[in-house]
Amino acid sequence: MWARHLLRRTACLLQGLPLGLHHRLVLRHITSSLLQYPGTRLSWSHLHGGSKSTACFNPCRTLKRDAKSSIDVPANPVTVTDIKQYLRSKGISFHDGYSCLHASSIFVETKSQMQEGAGKDSYTMFIDKMTGQFLCKETLVEGSWEDLQDCLEVMQKEGQTSISPEVLLSYSESVEEQGQREMELKEVQRIWSSSVTFTDLHEEELQLIKTMFQISKINNATLKKFGVRFFKPTKSLVFPWFSGYDLHIRGIKLLSAATKGDGRVVYTEASIPKLSNYYNLFGLPLVGRKETEMVLTGSEIDSMAVSQATGLTALALPRGVSCLPPVLLPYLEQFRKVTLWLGGDMHAWEASKMFSKKLGLKRCSLVRPGEFHPCPNEALMQGKNLARIVKASIPAAHKSIVSFKQLRDDVFGELSNVEQVAGIKWGRFPELNRILKGHRKGELTVFTGPTGSGKTTFISEYALDLCMQGVNTLWGSFEIKNVRLAKIILTQFAMQRLEESLEQYDYWADKFEELPLYFMTFHGQQNVKTVLDTMHHAVYLYDISHVIIDNLQFMMGQENLSVDKFAIQDNIIGAFRKFATNSSCHVTLIIHPRKEEDDKELQTASIFGTAKASQEADNVLILQEKKLVTCPGRRSLQVAKNRFDGDVGIFPLEFNKSSLTFSAPVRSKQKLRKVKGDKAENSETEVKEKSEKVSKSTKEPKTRKTLKEPATGKNEMNGE
Ligand SMILES: Nc1ncnc2c1ncn2[C@@H]1O[C@H](COP(=O)(O)OP(=O)(O)OP(=O)(O)O)[C@@H](O)[C@H]1O
């Protein structure tokens, strides 16, 4: 219905346009609207009842901002050279920025803008160099590279020097979305208008609130400057999101604190619109047009601390260290120097290294976390000199050759943060933590197991566990369709058969939607280059730090059977290895085993292909289906390689058919075999046995509520 409505509107707006272009615009907008439904894989048949046509319509186009759950890569990925050439061909003046090209806006009616040599300061249109996505800061029109091209084509055909922002603004939302947005806005206004400023609070109440939120060193003037209020009904700090256009309230973030029975204070964060759509750089309205230096922090409170203590411009990322959405990059283009001080731990350090790549390494410097450099608010509380800490930040750009002098602090950081360096711990698989120590960025894990043994099911829960802790995850499922895979993951998330309690579906689906989980929309055989392009694209857009590929065989191609299959596989593994290292992204690669005799356990050498897979992998995991002496009839997970600290071993898994989950069985004396090196294939006699009591918590998964300190700004992910 709305698609037809859209079509009619588009047709009216485009009256008089040449048919081909008109047709393309209409189709584009239908496409983008369809793609706004998570998981939608748009095929030609959506539009043409199955028949393929040669019209210049690209079904795999860039996504709109909200179409976040499924990831397509443009069939013809745009490069910065393409963008520049195109702009030149249309007579649009521009200059090279850090992450964007700055161009004269075509949505503003200033004829002089189109002239060569117009002042650079007048450039208000920012075009992302990686994706071509654009934003006009003057009118807040944004869209994809294709949208911009269409507008320029229309302008040229019509002989115009500018185009009305309405053309794109009117397409950006469906009727339902508009209704939803209006409802949200009303709620935002309701909370905002019934919140009180800090100067309206009694001194006693004020001090209590400040103590509760650990902001006793943030003074009232700073709270006022940043527009922070207090919402009494939920006892929450209210951080406003003002529209950059007319400074109207556009959204809010609420930070609440509650004291638990044991006296601990638990902080929770909520926002309207929901966090995944909350694109606010807190502090932006305070930035002057001419300012060139800024400190980027991981939370609103940290920004206030920096601003108050140093007088420097400080902005906070909307979702802390979890991501830097590219839609925010245009707002950071004016800064010649960006200091990233995202927190006081290793996660903040990892994130600042990743984000500085997006921001442009040359202008970034990083505050190295540690005992002397906690997060800004903590530094303020401890009476540290924040200006000195910012000044001591280190340049993000590094040389190819370094001496130990330059590495010395990094090495110290690793030695003094052993737990964090070991990676994120699984909540459902404590045995995996014991052997592998954690899930680390930049590693390659190869996972194998007999056909139909439950590889996808296990890896799905293994990845979900991490995703629930804020690990931005991308699934490449080539074997089973995304809907089926999402159903498996959702069942594991809810830990129950939702078929039998459909009334709970929306409850779980709403929570599930908040997870940073994305799916590639591929199915069946795929070209590895396309898959890697999509992965790069996703890392840029969503700061993905874990990619699961199920499975490698789907990239091997079927045509060239004469070509050496092993050589092809080795190349693919090499490419994934390189991607993992260069993108600081963990890749979990499922590879089928070669044919083995049924009653033999698998070993590292059973992985299909040459030894390249196990050599390149940091971790090799094997789902063993064979009966173990100690646990007859059960699956077990073997860690056959662990480059991080060499510990290998095996532990039993217990499959729960209704929740599709695996958890270690509770036994008083669970035997666990400890295997050193790659000797898993050797006889049982060579295997050291180690008795170990399996913690009861594995049977009753813990509630993994992220206890947030106000300054960390991490998302709360809790699905149990
Ligand atoms: N431990 C288990 N015990 C019994 N059934 C299981 C177990 N693990 C998974 N299953 C079920 O077996 C079926 C196949 O599981 P899954 O697709 O995960 O296997 P796979 O190893 O990935 O398969 P393939 O080799 O085809 O890729 C699913 O229906 C799943 O629910």
TrEMBL record:
State its location(s): Mitochondrion inner membrane; Mitochondrion matrix, Mitochondrion nucleoid
Q: What is its EC number?
A: 5.6.2.3
The keyword Transit peptide is assigned to this record = yes
The record, for SUPFAM superfamilies, names: P-loop containing nucleoside triphosphate hydrolases (SSF52540)
Against InterPro entries, the record matches this protein to: DNA_helicase_DnaB-like_C, P-loop_NTPase, TOPRIM_DnaG/twinkle, Twinkle-like
Q: Which Gene3D superfamilies match?
A: 3.40.1360.10, P-loop containing nucleotide triphosphate hydrolases (3.40.50.300)
Q: Which UniProt keywords apply?
A: ATP-binding, DNA replication, Helicase, Hydrolase, Isomerase, Lipid-binding, Membrane, Mitochondrion, Mitochondrion inner membrane, Mitochondrion nucleoid, Nucleotide-binding, Transit peptide
Q: Which reaction does it catalyse?
A: ATP + H2O = ADP + phosphate + H(+)
Assign the protein's first listed, main location to one coarse class.
Answer: mitochondrion
Q: Where is this region: Disordered?
A: 671-720
Give the matching PROSITE patterns.
SF4_HELICASE
- The keyword Nucleotide-binding belongs to this UniProt entry's keyword annotation: yes
Superkingdom of source: Eukaryota
Q: Which residues form the SF4 helicase domain?
A: 418-669
One GO cellular component term of this record is: mitochondrial inner membrane
Compositional bias (Basic and acidic residues): 675-708
Q: Which GO terms describe its biological process?
A: mitochondrial DNA replication
- Molecular function GO terms recorded: 5'-3' DNA helicase activity; ATP binding; hydrolase activity; lipid binding; single-stranded DNA binding
This protein's membrane topology, according to the annotation, is: Peripheral membrane protein
Q: What does this protein do?
A: Mitochondrial helicase involved in mtDNA replication and repair. Might have a role in mtDNA repair. Has DNA strand separation activity needed to form a processive replication fork for leading strand synthesis which is catalyzed by the formation of a replisome complex with POLG and mtSDB. Preferentially unwinds DNA substrates with pre-existing 5'-and 3'- single-stranded tails but is also active on a 5'- flap substrate. Can dissociate the invading strand of immobile or mobile D-loop DNA structures irrespective of the single strand polarity of the third strand.
Annotated protein name in UniProt: Twinkle mtDNA helicase
